[in-house]
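Hi V.,

You were right to ask for the full record rather than a summary. Here it is.
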Amino acid sequence: MNRVKLFILTFVVLMFAASSIISTQRYVQVTDIVTISMKTVGWAASELELEMLKFMQALRLTALNDMRAEDLQLRFDLLWSRVDVLSVGEETREFRNQTGATEFLQNIKQRLVELEPEVLSLKMGDQNAIKIIQELKPFQTQVREFNVKSFSGDKIWGGLKQIHSLQNDANIFLLGLLLSGCILVMLVIRESAINRKQALHDSLTGLANRHFFQDSLEKTIAHSRRNNSRTAVHMIDMNEFKEINDRLGHAVGDALLQEVASRLAKSVCLSDVVARLGGDEFGIIQKNITSSEECVQLAQHIHEQINCEMNVHGYRIYPNVSIGISVFPDDAEHPDKLLNNADTAMYCAKNNDDVYYRLFEQEMNDSVLRYRILAECLQTALDHDQVQQVYQPIICLKTKRIVAVEALLRWHHEQYGYISPLEVVSIAEESGLAEKLNEWVLLKACSQNMSWRKAGLPLIQVSVNISPAMYTRYDLVGVVSRTLSFTGLPADQLIIEVTEDTTMQDIESSPDILQKLRRLGVELALDDFGTGYSSLSHLKKMPFQKLKIDKVFIQELNNAPKDMSFIRTIINLAHGLGMQVVAEGIEVIGHYEDLYLEGCEYGQGYLFYKPAPSHEIECILQENLNTIDSRAL
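Predicted structure:
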């Protein structure tokens, strides 16, 4: 069968090629005839007449004292050269083959030789130019006649008849070309129909693709509607796949996707559909379920198969997936709505560290709607400076003087009210605004500190928290450098706060990023210490100058009896690593006294100052300045 198809295809291709070649040859012949008849002869004759007219016009302008002798001589040379071109050469042979053309060219050339001394002696305003015009008029008339014959003479009509004859011959081969072309198109259509199945599958994983998935979902729902059965859609997304791709390369990422796809295909029934919907997102159509419990069992099985160690190209990888589930007809009756609901449930699972799957609930739509509204509004708020920044002083526990302020975000949305800084950062990271938000915070904080310095207030540092996305995905060092350069703030007056978990997200690059920041002169603070998962060996590589004890541990001092052993250990560890300690969340005088006695250098909390807008901080700094001045007196 394949040999027959090959023979037919070869025959059609040869027929098509032969028809094309012969048709092309006929076309070339016709083109040559047209070129000789219209371009070579007609163009040559018209150019000669044009040069003759231009020269005679130049003579008139010379007589009227409106053309220099040099320009006239140039026109004379051009006319002469046109006659020379027509007198020799293969391209202008057809012109010379016209009756009387050769004699005419000789006569006009002879006349030009005779007129040359007179033309060369002409000056501006010389009336002899009119005389030369009169002598050339007979030649102008002859040139016109040759030009007309070039477009309507016997040779032209003969050429047109020859063209007509060649076109009739070519029609036969054009018919063959059309026939072979039609057969070829039919073969292509047939092969396309065969390849259509391949077009419905993902080339990397071999799973069904999005188009096949959506088509299957529509058919499955129609079947479930007729049979009063239930169908579930599982949306599966790999968490942090981009980081794996960026860190280990696309070859490893592709191999990981293939392994995940294979495990997913083995996790479902034969009647179910598994598809790769794009990137690191997969979908499953679970057919003929009786209860939501079956969906949960499948999700748990998928979690067991995927969320475990995989050896890919020699790398040990621990993939993690989030699953969203939506059931027909309980959650939606239309395929698109069912997909959207499963996607919403998956998004909620990704944003909840305690679960890896979520069944769709109607309340989730409110959460998704809130996110979309806030994401859009955050963009506008940053563009129009509608996000606010407040500052909480950090004091020296020994002197009780303000040594720094921490910049804190405040955003009040007209619909949802106060939005917590953590939610603002989360929205910014998920909507691609992390870099813009961090640039805004840095610029605002540094500019405000410079404003206080210019006002003659006590010199203090400003501390800025950096979001994880800014640390791992964007050029943090470049942003900090540009901000310092733009605002003019000395680098040592800026403190960059980074959490333990943030540095652990990119263990290999973290020391290099922090070292580059230190080379700029910026101070570094390890924030929320004790709540993350960093190791001592990891901490030793990090060039931090300050360590901030999370307020959770400070608040535990309220318990009776007080246990300072853990905080004492943290303080001693920090000092051993060459870091100073800042205690967050100090709210009672007893905590201040205990921390000071244990050697903690700095503190912040409601006991000292609440976060306040810049103008209030300015007043506080002014009061401190007045206190210092009065002591000096």
